[in-house]
Amino acid sequence: MGDGEWGYERPASLTGLSASLSGSGEVLVIGGGTDIVPAVKRGTVHPATLVSTLRVPEFGEIREEDESVGVGSAVSLDTLARSHLARERYPALVQAASTLASRQIRNRGTVGGNLCLETRCDYYNKSAFWRKEYPGCRKAGGDSCYVVPRGTGCHALHSGDLAPAFMAYRAQAEVLSTGGEKTLFPLEDLYSDSGLHSTVLEPREVLVRALLPPSDHTRAVFLRWAPRETIDFPSVTVAAAVGPEWSRLIVGHVLPRPVRVVAAEGPVRRLVSGEDARGEDDSAEVRVEEIAQTVVDSLDMKSAHRGAVWHKKNVIRTLVRRALYALRADEGERRIKEGGA
User: In the chain, which ranges are continuous DSSP H helix?
Assistant: First the structure.
């Protein structure tokens, strides 16, 4: 196969998909193609074969199973944003999907593509021609990082909007191997700690769907900040959820993976439930500030991609405040609508 040419396969079953993934040469799984196709055109990836998941039924469904809901990786972002089932049970996830990128991208892009979106930085995500000026980039096979020159490793950042929202709802990832076997594990374990690879998936493994647990008595919120409301990748995203006996707080886009801030989760649950009222002198505002500072202190940010670190810390504080007030019933929702933090 000559330079710039590749095969394209569209299997219609899991068996056919497994067979396609077992083919020779570099095989890339493709959904809507909003990320992979531009990379191929830029000459930064060179697949022998592109394998589409769009015709495999299990990949294209939002399906209720008992009280859980499975969201197939080939479901379009727009379909998820308009899903009545998702809107009723997982509104923060719908918020994430409906504000992602532009309408055109949401019409074509898929859930799996966004969950497995490659990490990004100012140097790697360019054309092959442009990269010649920066030949030592670790993500491109070199031994240098131009984002953090004195650091170690790769500091490209996680870029998907959906992961923090799915993680806040305690979603699990279902993955198909080349042998046709499926494995199920927490979605947070899908992501790599290094910018070199966005996920821990092997080259011929593929995400089938994200499985969401029952959402009874769960309150959740998703917030994003970007220079422009759409099109741009966010500088920061925050997702938080509180259940009867648990809570989650996730920060995205500031490290190579979305980060679950475990140190803040107990205080979040006690704040929202009212369990930690420690006297008249200890107002909710004080506890909110404590939690926001805990989140910032838990993040070892180094990359200035999409904004200076000091600026992203200020944005994180603001989004965490708003998320916490939004989880605190009508008072918080009113404050946000009025423009308060």
Answer: 14-21, 36-42, 77-82, 84-89, 91-98, 103-108, 111-115, 128-131, 162-168, 262-273, 284-298, 309-327, 329-337
Among the ranges given (39-53, 126-140, 173-187, 246-260), the one the predictor scored with the smallest mean pLDDT:
126-140
Strands (E), 110-266: 172-176, 182-186, 206-212, 219-225, 236-242, 247-252, 259-260
Task: Give the right CATH number for 57-114+159-337 from 3.90.78.10, 3.30.465.10, 3.40.640.10, 3.40.980.10.
Answer: 3.30.465.10
Q: Quick check: helix, strand or coil at residue 98?
A: helix
Taking a C-beta distance cutoff of 8 angstroms, is the pair 164, 239 a contact? yes
16 has pLDDT over 80: yes
pLDDT computed for residue 247 by the predictor:
97
- Read off the pTM: 0.92
DSSP-derived secondary structure for 43-54: TS---SEEEE-T
pLDDT tens digits along 270-317: 999 887 655 554 688 999 999 999 999 999 999 888 899 999 999 999
**Domains of the chain by residue range:** 57-114+159-337
